[in-house]
Amino acid sequence: MASDGDGGKKRSSSPNVAKDSSGREKEAKRDGNDGQSSSGFAVGDRVRVQGTSDKSKKLEATVTRKHMSGEYTVEYVESGKTEKYVKAERLERSKESSEKVSGFAEGDSVLYRRKSTGSEAETAWRDGVVKACRSDDSFDMVDVDTEEVVRKVSSTNLKKKKAKKTKKEDEKGDDKEASWSVDDRVEFKNEDGEWIQGRISKRRNDGTYDVVHESDEDLIERKLASRQICARKSTKKKQTKKSESEHESEESVRKRKPSKRKEGSEDDEEDDDSTDRPRKRRPNQRRGGNGRARLQFPQLRLHQLIDFEDDGGKWHRGRIKLLRKDEETCDIEHESDTETISKRVSVVALRPVSVLARVWGNRAADPNAYQLNARVFYRTKEGDERKGFVIKAWRDKGAVTYDIEDEIEGDVIKRVPGSKLRPVPWININYSLPTLPSLPPLPSLPAWNFGSFMPSTILRKGMNVRVRRRMSATGRIQWEDGVIVRTKSDATCIVELRGPDGEVRDKIQVKNADIRPKFTSPFTGMLDGLQLPTLQLPRGLYPPKSAVEVSDGSNVYMGTVVTVNEAERLYTILYNDGRKEKNVPADRVRLSLRRLRIGTEVEMIVEGPCKEVSQLDGEVAWVHRDEKVAVRINGGNNDVFAEVCTHALMVDGQPAFSAPLSSTWFELCGFYLNLSLEAFSFIWFVFGMTVELGEMIRVLNETSPTRLEDASVMDAMYTQRNVNWTECARQPSNGASSLLIPAAFLSIDRSWLMAMIIIKAVLVVCCAGFAFRLVHSKIMAIQDNFIDLKEYQQDRVLRRYFHRVMGVTLLVAYLALLVYAALLNRFESYCLVQPVEEMRFDQLALHVDMFAVHTHYPTTVDLLLGLTAKSVFNLFRATALYVLVFTFPGGFLRRVLCVAPSVALTALMSAMGIASLHIFYYVHRTELLDDGITTLSTQVDYAVVLVFVSIWFNSSLNRLLTATGNYFETISERHANARGDLTDDILDQAERGEFGLQAKHEALMARVELRQEQLGICKLSVLRIQRQFLIHIVLMIVGICVNEALRQDVPSDDSTAHAAFTLHLVVCIVWLVQSILTSLYALVVKREAPELLTYILDM
């Protein structure tokens, strides 16, 4: 068995080596004058080393170590690099070895290093000058930096100092010696005189080179002269520094004179750094140049899963099939393609595979590298994105390209770059199918970049799959369970079909397009005896002449069903562009959600002056936003009817004014849930406002002058409130047990309360009418399973009005809280409300029974407190529902995802509103109780100003987020209704007025929408803020000034009031700063769309 010192090779005894009595090898002395002695070199001798590739080239070196095998470790004089295990046949004695001292003389500038003491600074090479030469081959040195005299420095610790070359000399020298080969990593000078890193891609016969940029392999510099190319200086410097540190570490270890066992481990460490011999075996790992942990030979075993690097620097994954211990190489079978085997891969290029790497895949590999049989998206020459399989990988000068087989058509596209591919996510959702305009599609997972985190499963050997197979007996297609036994490079797999008991029934070859991974539960086998009921949702096929939409995985095409094969669930589709496709699977077909598109052939019913009815054939030239269309009559005159109602059109003999609700149970379920959410929100809102209105009327009646000036009523009220007259500022006169409140004291507040009741009642009735209209329209659509597009357009208008009316209702409900706060202060001045230093309205709302219809209150004050708490709670709840329904429109799933943002926005708006309410309450309380001012004062007016500043902030924030939600809804609707497919030619015709005045205006709107989409929502929001930046800045400055003025009038012991002041001040400052910064940035954004700036924010 080979020892550790020879790297796995057997040693033969040399005639120049003898054994002493202890069994150790002893050198036989020879003359050594021939310069070729195999044992005549000692540590410190100067030798010349013959090169491995070019034997005529010999380099000066110094022997630093002699191994027991008769080999040597040498250190090159010029480069300072160390080479280990150099055979004696490659060494010859240098001419300078017999006169070592003659190499250095007094006054020579040299590099020297001191004897190692374990400090890195002392073992580093330093600049010095020879002061004296000693007879024992040592020197006295003068350090250049410290001017310290260092005595007895051995010649082995000296080396000549290179003279610095000028840049011209360096270029000349490089020009003489430069000889580059393909794939050498170099630096080259471009036309601007800059040195750039690159790689040699081609060597020409005229002595010039083609160099590829390292940063971009598509950029190639051609026919560069050798003087324009040099080696990478930084890499060379790092390697020199590394070799010096290794040699210094070796000298440090030798100085400590370790034991024999430690010497053996030291030899192993030296062996690992060798460049000319195979790697030594050692039980631990080391780090490669790229920071990855490398494997050593004893760690390797057959069938081990490892990552390895090829010659082009790409990483692959595979299993070891053959180990060669003598060469320390192995053969590796690729995991992605078992037919591909990389032979004689060095251990240096291997890397272990961790447990996480096995679970998540090879994340350290190139993100543009794809394994064979991987499902990917690729783009055709027309720019369409389609699905396919990787069937072959090509490597051409470091660049990797792939052959892709289309999943549907089966066509093979040759040499597609990896940068133009992206993985297909394993979540099987058809993202391209549109939905109804009122039901925007689900959130697009590829837009969130989920495809890169959840790529489709790659078919591998041993994977449980389901195979689509056509039965020869019946001709039908069915899915069967099986196991992959082999994957082939032609996008097929060998699959063993297995029965329920696991027996192998057949072995077939199946295309990858007909294979789907089978995901099993972790509890498979534990619940085999449990039979659970299943529900199969019935779904029939669409009859012939049905308008449908067909998806090819990336695009959706309009067409009509020609024939139906119910046995195999296949269609024959005639597309609108004239193409016909047979055997279209039913899972790719759905009912058309919008039949009227530009180019759709229609039949227009025309009624003449004598009420005669005729039909004219034509095509849709333009679709208006109110669902009317412009129809171009077929014929030579190209007559156009500008505005035709959809009720007068027929498509394939069917009315064209309706569209199906949905074509899948999932969409229908989402429609039901969305309707339920909106109905629940509207009913709860109207219910809360109605209950609040009833209690407001009760407060108005119980604060009438007849009751407050009635002694018996007031005596009962003071008795139930348990008033402590010793703490009351007012005292009853004439021995009375209560105080009477005069009518003029509450007249102003009661007038405001009456106005709030009337306005609120009208707004609640309007909200109830709008809500009933919207819900009734959707319920009728569910009963008929179709939506009338005309009614849908009317519903959109009603929804926009409902949005505004509900917002005004919330504003009135908030202003009513100010009236309640003023009434509480009035009652507290007559001792009916206990002196509470820190009343918090948000805490009152936590004790409300949200479903109570009629609550009994013992006194008017208790009724007022209950009404205040209930109003605050209803305001919180209504604001949250308002934001969810109107600020974040969309389908049910999108609204569920927007619950958290809705709550966050409601919390911010409510915090600002409650802070202003607290400020008004404490300022009015201070003026009324401390100063005795019963009428409106300047300080109270300032508090009202802060309230309106808060209202402006909340409305601005809500408008901004509502515009954001409408922006995304508009984009979804435009793509669903094919308004985004308008060509420039059609828009030009519409702008010239060929389709009528309405289409001319809508063409401008279409261009504005396109410009909005190009700008993005962030820039549009900046423009919206800048549009009213003067109002923002003025109101925020006023709010800050009024805040500081009112803060001084409120007592310092009212912590709730001061917290409200602080919150209000912080929000005003933040909004002021962002308004200024946004206005400055808006000046830049305006330059991007000067021609449509007037319309961008109005739509």
Short description:
The chain is of the alpha+beta class and 1099 residues long. The chain is built from 20 helices and 47 strands. The strands form 11 sheets. A 6-stranded antiparallel β-sheet has the order 43-42-41-40-44-45, with helices on one face. Strands 6-5-4-3-7 form a 5-stranded antiparallel β-sheet. The chain has a 5-stranded antiparallel β-sheet with strand order 11-10-9-8-12, with no helix packed on it.
Provide a descriptive summary of the structure in words.
The chain is α+β, with helices and mostly antiparallel strands and 1099 residues long. It folds into seven domains: 167-231, Roll (SH3 type barrels); 291-360, SH3 type barrels (Roll), CATH 2.30.30.140; 375-448, SH3 type barrels (Roll); 464-517, SH3 type barrels (Roll); 547-660, no CATH class; 661-896, no CATH class; 898-1099. The strands form eleven sheets. Strands 43-42-41-40-44-45 form a six-stranded antiparallel beta sheet, covered by helices on one side. Strands 6-5-4-3-7 form a five-stranded antiparallel beta sheet. A five-stranded antiparallel beta sheet has the order 11-10-9-8-12, with no helix packed on it. β41 (613-623) and β42 (629-633) form a beta hairpin. It starts with 16 loop residues before the first strand and ends with a helix.
